[in-house]
Queue: 2 jobs
Job 1
Amino acid sequence: MKMFLATVVFLLSAHSLYAEEVWLQVKESLVRTEPRFYARGLAPVKYGDRLQALSRDSGWIKVELGKTQGYLPESSISPKRIVLSNLRAVSVEADAADVVLAGKGFGKEIEEQYRQSVSGLRFDLVNSVERSSKVTPKEVAQFVSKGGLK
Amino acid sequence: MRQVCMCRKSFSRINVFAFLISGIFVVTGCTNPAFKQVGASILSSTGYVSSTAAEGLLGAGSNLVESQRALTAEQEYYLGRAVSANLLATYQPVLTSSTMQYVNKVGMAIASVSDLPETFGGYHFALVESDQINAFAAPGGFIYVSTGFVRRLPDEDCLAAVLAHEVAHVNLKHGVSAISNAKLLSSLGEFTKHGVSIAGSKVSTPAELASLTSALTESVSGVTDKLLRSGFDRSQEYQADLYAARLLERAGYDPHALVRVLTILRDSQADDADGWYATHPAPKKRISELEGDFDFAASQGPHAERTARFKQAVK
């Protein structure tokens, strides 16, 4: 029984260590000084970047990237390894369920096929909306402050 | 007899423990076959469940978790783009720089305090030309509000309330829930298996392309139909109202603004039977649900600076 318990504890500990490695699942983000959206950015991070998770608190996760430690929204990270499919030398040995292949599934390639198969779609306007709707975190922080918001 | 009972009790405790441990493996290790196998071994060691049944149970747990993660953030973004390409074929966006900047700042003031402050490609808020009262939230954070709706709003807090309701739909994945999950998952599942074997290649096989394009077409049509015609379930609308009130409070806006918006909707119903009215529950019922579920503090009333900038930007 003791052996059984020791094995279980060992396996659970091993799993919790394994689970501390996380990947950024949004196109881009900033590792911030504090667990607040408009806190100062310390380092930019990109889709598929691997990070070490240190702790979690109220929707934020403290991460380590090289020598930098800071915060990211917990919803922006994934416990699944994200493999960028345009890196030709990548080797994937893990089970498929542990891996997300960036750009695979619904991605640019499928969008292009869809665009060609359906007439009258306005992807040009979608691109315009994406371009015109960009506001910087600094601009929003000022807007929030001037409007007496939190 | 007493001794037998004690043995049974003790054995039962071990079994409960084994079930609990195997349950932990379902939750924490369900995507890893090695952990799944350990969980199955522990579960079958109880003697109550065969090893095949144990693997089946753990597999069911895995499928449950997998179905909740049907789409990655990236896939949700591309689905949202495709839904938007359909919506914008009907509704022309207002691309005036000052209006776009203003609406996106209000939207981000709300989205940044939500549980999903960042989406794969970021949130995008836009006004669309239409006299109808309408608002849509496509997956991935594409949010559209009709000019006819905004014209009826008195201040920024009310615009924030409309956007908060839509941000709530995005956070709660209501758009994605419109997709027939089983078929989509089957498509993605087959693809993922194949995907691993072709990792490193940019190009999918023709069969994969055809299968995924068909899945995307079906998914887009399911979501677009929900947004334009059938609407979300009533319970999803009430959830979105409650979540929106919380977001308004967190952001520093007046949560009463949401009740003011619903009152405007109730009073405008006679003039506009289509648009939002065709896809949402009656405003009167929504007000009563919201007032029953949300603990409102005293209203702050209109904020002078916010009202002034609202009038300058969108009127």
Note: Confidence is low (pLDDT under 50) at residues 1-12, 19-40, 42-68, 193-202 of chain B.
Job 2
Amino acid sequence: MNRGYLVRRAFYAFVTFLIVLVLNFIIPRLMPGSPVQYFANPKILPSIEAKLLTQRFGLDKPVWDQFLLYITGVFRWPPDLGVSYTYYPAPVWSVIMNYLPWTLLLVGSATVVTAVVGILVGIWIGSKQGTKTDTVVTSVSLFFWTMPFFWLGAILLWFFSIYLHVFPAGGAESTNLSGMPILNQVADIAEHAFLPGLTLTLAAFAGYSLIMRNTIVEELGQDYVTIATAKGLSHRAVLFRHAARNALLPMITLIGLNLGYVVSGALLVEVVFSYPGVGWLTYQAVLSHDYPLLQGLFLVLSVAVIIANFLADVVYSFVDPRIK
Amino acid sequence: MALLEVRGLCIDYKLQNRYLRAVDNVAFQIDEGEVLGLAGESGSGKSTIAHSILKILPRSARVSGSILIDGTEVVKMDDREARAYRWKVVSLVPQGSMNAFDPVITIGSQIVESIRIHRNVDKADAWRRTRELFSLVGIPEGRAKGYPHEFSGGMKQRAAIAMALSLNPKLVILDEPTTALDVVIQRQVLGLLARLRRELGISFLFVTHDLSVLSEIATKVAVMYAGRLAEISNSETLFASPRHPYSRALIHAIPTLSGDLSLVRSIPGVPANILNLPPGCKFHPRCPYVFDRCRKEEPQLLHMDDGSSIACHLFDRREKNGGE
Amino acid sequence: MRLPRDRRVLVGISILGFFTFVAIFAPFLTPYGPHQVSGPPYSSPSFQHWMGTDELGEDIMSQVIFGARISLTVGFSVALAATLIGSLVGLVSGFYRGAVDEALMRLTDVVLILPSLPLAVILAAYLGPSVQTIIEVLTVTGWPLVARVVRSQTLSLRERPFVDAERVIGAGNARIMFRVIIPNLLSLIAANAVLAITAAVVGEAGLDFIGLGNPSVVSWGTMLYWSQNLNAILRGAWWWMLAPGLCIALVGLGAVLISIGIENIFNPRLRGR
């Protein structure tokens, strides 16, 4: 059973990946204008380079040939996704790889913290459903959730950085880091990542806490909870040992599903804090019409999310005995 | 001294901002070795009474009156006392045993949990006892480490009974234990219960809407309507000659294999709605023998010579002497 | 009984109503035009300029008031379009099941799983910066969620006894769909549509913020774009970012409150034991 489930999910992830590949290829070719203009524009790149690129990706050839060349570019190591206009002569892939680690750090830590905070808050107000605490906390969570979080980031930036001077005003690390002891380096990075991370957490935790709350309420209404209480378990034991464990299962899937949103969120937050991750990179790419880079970013980010979702499925399969 | 003695029990549920009386002035007792059947339609209050004995009603519910188990007063217990008391003298096999067990924990572990909450035994001993209980109810001991979804309906029911017996209680409350089972399994479960009563001398409080099941296993039956007791008689008397008009209607509504089909009647009118109860006797709108007093005055539980009790004006001696 | 919940819905309706009013009567509500240079640049909130001025000296409050028109237009249009498309897909998928369902759901899942912003960026980058683009892009990324939700409700409604009852009396698919399923879906669709307003308004802001909107149009999103681009925060001109963001947050909150109210009517378990 376990095998079957994982194989199915892997297959599904692969199919999604293929669809992303195709979409990535098709979209620019559906737009007015030729692929040459978008990816190997001789007005932007030196003409020799433009010619080479046109040849390499068959940009003036029929669509099917282009697709073949596109695929061969993707399925090699390192993947060949063209050359960036703004960071010329750096290839798209290496540009992205330079900025990706910072985003991974931000998104990774934010996902973990958000999930933990969201789940704990959800359990807490789920057990207090109907009370004033519930109403207040739910309203506060909703408030943070509905606001444009990047705007929240800007407010936090202004307040903590400009007004209070407690946190740095941007970037991922200070410029004079190398040569300093590891602990200082780590602390510096953490300092820079704190406000962006806080913004993401505040914005996203309600997505978990509200659903967790509703799930907990449902679980608390189940017969096995009645019996657990009847057996003499304390309210806390019933909540954590039984209700929460059951409510946690759908959370894992939710974390996977939310990854797309967290990534989107991180992109905007990076812009606010000038945090040099792929979000900030996207911003630059949009401003300078760097189509090759944009295409590459879309592909890489989508693949990252697909992989992360699959990992969530794997974790889920280990945790739910009904799947085992 | 009776094992369970209930006097003047009144239970109110909180619905939005008002309190609704779900159980009104109920009194009965169960002696050692007895099986009391608590019968009535859905919403008649029988499950509520069952839950109140174990003090597992929602926090907002108000309970007044007296519930004495082995001389200990349950109604006035605080949380800590209640937790210590539950499962040791009285335990519960819940309605919908399909859900009595936490789906993500093995059944054996849950039985072990019920033991270790109250007794300071080590795991090995608890597991040994669990396997004993399994064989007592007729489940192969090897299944103890199985998950609930791996058990069939009938087996889960037995497992729930096994868990209820884990601390050698004197009274086991069964809430609709046969409702979700087919007749063949029903038979087996009833047989098991009869055997347990014989071998271990346990008393049962059997809550159900299915009178035919009670006719097989109950020694005494209490019929409830709209949160009030209609009639309590010993089993033979009730099934042979039911006296309260409601009990009569219920008994006559049971089709028999050999009896005259024309005797099967359904009860006219609609079941009582606690949100909107009529004045006087709650059954009077549907009663074929209704007279004036019934519409104005609620009948008290009257004690008959043969030990049974009936709440109906028809059986009021003064009425008999005076008129109709 | 319904009072506490009703209060929240009322608050939500008043908020949305207020902003709609502002959008409609914009020219009457402010002495300045949105592109009119009326004061010194970067001035903080004052009596003449309740929300201060931007880098050109244009009154920010006027921009907020006029910006409401674009932002609400986008919000309402996207909500409407995405909900319509999503509901249609979900209904057809859930009702007919089989191959149709599989195909539609695969499509939905793919769009759902992709990080919406990169997808939106790709689409918008090629379509060119305009309000139209934003509406189209947000609709494309928004309908799948509605489709999922509607489909799952349709699936469960299909199995209900009253649907079987209709079949027994000989009702055809169309009749069942229109007489039975759709009426029961309305509350769900309404709740989702309102919720979509929140997502759309925030989405518009996000896309504008990152430079995909039309910067010469005045909307709450483009205001955020300009203030970021010109480093308003770093200059200390916090009011430029505060005003439009607050409006977006309020509109979002209003919509969420209304949708909770609609939901609560139909899910009594969440109302409290």
Note: DSSP finds eleven helices and twelve strands in chain B.
